[in-house]
Amino acid sequence: MGASEALLQRTADDAAPIGVGKAAARHTTRHLRRRVAAFVIDTCLLSALIFLGAAILWAILGAALRFTPTDARLAGEVLFDARLVRVTSFAGIATGFAYFSVSWLVLGATPGQRLYHLEVRDEDGGARLTLGRATARWVALGAPLWIASSLVPGWPGVVAAMALFLWVACLLLATARSTTGQGWHDRLSGTRVVLVRRAHRVHAPRDRHVR
């Protein structure tokens, strides 16, 4: 092999991993974008469900916050029903658990994930999640901080909400830097998010007979 042929061979050997690396990076970026978009949609849908549930509870049991004017200038006091607020918070937490864990258990994905053809499976990428594994993933996603921010009043609740935001940001960063596409919540719960291409049903053309 001549010098020019050896140089061309080395150039080809060096270029192949770079091309594969770029393709893998593009695939990882697209996969991460799908997951982020699905999470945003799930957050919006869950928030709507929680507000709807709170409105139904308040319509049945009475409003948790009431404003009572005391003079003609509408100055007055705000009545706060702590018991009803706790009931509403627990209902919201139960809704969040059902939305994520039950969706992963029964459907294999949340509504947002199904929209982007994503499914959550065990770490091997095969079987769907058990109830224990789905619950563990919900907890690792930041459920304890969300519960604390919902139930704990005052500054501790605010700190819990800020910690939840920071935890979600860390999960996103860990997922983006992972070679397997697994964030900390995936690794802690032994799960993996996979892309599923659902086959479209193809109808055979009908025979047209000339009569």
Descriptive overview:
By secondary structure, the chain is mainly alpha-helical. The protein has one domain. Helices cover 65% and strands 9% of the residues. It has seven helices and four strands. The strands form two sheets. Strands 1-2 form a two-stranded antiparallel ribbon. Strands 3-4 form a two-stranded antiparallel ribbon. Helix 1 packs across helix 2, helix 2 runs antiparallel to helix 5 and helix 5 packs antiparallel against helix 6. The longest helix has 59 residues. The radius of gyration is 26 Å and the shape is globular. The N and C termini lie far apart (73 Å).
Topology (elements, then pairings):
Blueprint: H1 3-61, E1 65-69, E2 76-80, H2 82-106, H3 111-115, E3 118-122, H4 131-140, H5 143-151, H6 154-177, H7 184-189, E4 191-195
Antiparallel strand pairs: 1-2, 3-4
Helix pairs in contact: 1-2, 2-4, 2-5, 5-6
Please outline what is shown here.
This protein is mainly alpha-helical. Helices cover 65% and strands 9% of the residues.
Whole-number total of structural domains? 1
End-to-end Cα distance, whole Å, is 73 Å
Largest sheet, spatial ordering of strands: 1-2
Tally of contiguous helical segments: 7
Low-confidence stretches: 3-21, 71-76, 200-204, 207-211
Outline? globular
Order of helices and strands: HEEHHEHHHHE
Helix content: 55-70%
In what range is the share of β-strand residues? 5-15%
Computed CA radius of gyration, to the nearest angstrom:
26 Å
What structural class results from the helix and strand content? mainly alpha
Mean model confidence by pLDDT: 79
Number of strands: 4
What does the main sheet amount to? 2 strands, antiparallel
